[in-house]
């Protein structure tokens, strides 16, 4: 499944199960997995268009671009945590 900007903009996370606050953690984690897979696919497509070989993250290959993407995902997780905290108050 390829993620589109419309997917991101229209996504609404379910509320956490009864007794918990914020969003359903499993649902958020699944979405972040899709985001990561989309970024990897786009990176590989760009590499292929430039004549390079796709990079296989399964073998632990780390590039500056991959490191940058992981840092961006960490920022997204931090923003989400702040939003969840704001919703709780």
TrEMBL record:
| Record-linked InterPro entries | DivIVA_domain, DivIVA_fam
Q: Which domain of life is it from?
A: Bacteria
Keywords from the named record: Cell cycle, Cell division, Coiled coil, Cytoplasm
Name where it's found. Cytoplasm
Among the Pfam families in the record, one is: DivIVA
From the Swiss-Prot or TrEMBL record, give the protein name.
Cell wall synthesis protein Wag31
Q: Which organism is it from?
A: Dactylosporangium salmoneum
